[in-house]
Design goal:
Elements lengths: L6 E5 L2 E10 L4 E10 L8 E5 L6 H24 L10 H25 L5 H21 L5 H12 L1 H5 L1
Helix pairs in contact: 1-2, 3-4
């Protein structure tokens, strides 16, 4: 790649090069976007392209990033939120089931973001299980601990597995 033929943009945590090139296999011009991270290692670059020549370089990379986020959401909803497990035939019930599956994944992502924990469904499941167990222990013991004690226990015990992972 000759950088003099490219348009260089600075994007989040990296540099983005864009150019219009002819693809022999597609037999047409394509818009190419090449992203290099800010780190010194140049082996982690990513290349994206679009057959829509009117797209800007930033639009190409944003389109792909959005696409991958959607794919991860579908993957997590299928694997962990029961997206494929509905047996209803009524369209309203199917729509409710699909919305509930995606909403549960999005709520888990938001909870992890609020707690400052990297998102993974298994860490979310561990945190929810630990929170339930902590609440159950407090209820069964019959004690009424101070709110400061509850906050400390929550931070120490509930987030334990997410930090360890």
């Amino acid at each position: 790649m000759n950088p003099t033929h490219c348009v260089e943009l600075h994007v989040d945590k990296g540099r983005l090069f864009g150019l219009k090139a002819y693809s022999k296999s597609l037999k047409r011009f394509i818009k190419v976007a090449i992203w290099y991270p800010d780190e010194d290692s140049m082996d982690k670059w990513q290349i994206y392209f679009s057959t829509d020549e009117s797209m800007t370089t930033r639009d190409v990379i944003n389109c792909y990033r959005t696409r991958f986020q959607l794919e991860f959401c579908f993957r997590d909803a299928k694997s962990y939120a029961g997206l494929n497990d509905c047996q209803a035939r009524d369209l309203r019930r199917l729509e409710f089931h699909f919305n509930a599956s995606f909403a549960s994944i999005n709520l888990a992502k938001a909870a992890c973001k609020d707690l400052g924990v990297p998102f993974s469904v298994s860490s979310c499941k561990s945190m929810i299980h630990n929170a339930y167990m902590l609440e159950r222990f407090i209820c069964v013991s019959g004690l009424r601990p101070f709110p400061q004690v509850i906050d400390k226990l929550f931070k120490e015990l509930v987030l334990f597995t997410s930090r360890a992972a």
